[in-house]
Design brief:
By secondary structure, the chain is an alpha+beta fold. It contains 4 helices and 10 strands; from the N terminus they run αββββββββββααα. 18% of the residues are buried.
Length: 197
Amino acid sequence: MALKIAFASLFLVAFAIGVTASDPELTSDYSAPASIDGNYFKSTVLKGVPIASAKFATVTGLNQNNFPALFGLGVSSALVQFPPGTINPVHYHPRASELFYVIQGCLDVGFVDTMNMLFTATVCEGESFIFPKAMTHFQINRGHVTAKGIVAFSSSNPGTSRLPNVLFKSGIPDDVLMQSLGVGKLTINLLKFGIVN
């Protein structure tokens, strides 16, 4: 009997910790501000966005910081533009799944799951691809025309961790990187100074 009570207590503690460690999205009820009209719910943030890089995709976020109507709704978005040959470097969003809808061109995309399985596809205009929450993923334009996509995130603050920056621009000591990656100092330096984004 005592063993059953101990297991039940352990389960309840683990459940309580799991519940409090989740990412509560909707922390407030929706309420329209006073004295607004339909324009409050309209955004031009993604209109006419110039392409900023010839090497990397240009990502323009649409979130509660630049579109207040999203406050408390638990969603955000982005426009991602890929000139030919550009990439959205390997990254992940710790707090959101990403639904990627291609509005122009084609992209090669992929993600790696927690079992280290790589899932890839070519996604073209009118097609979508889902990147599950916190899975490392990428998009690359191997075509000869600019590709564009609209992203829908399942969080108002999805966060973005780009692996090249996390590994080589965060201050992780070289000896830790060398041992973790199984490479020498020269390789670490080449990687550190070759990262532009």
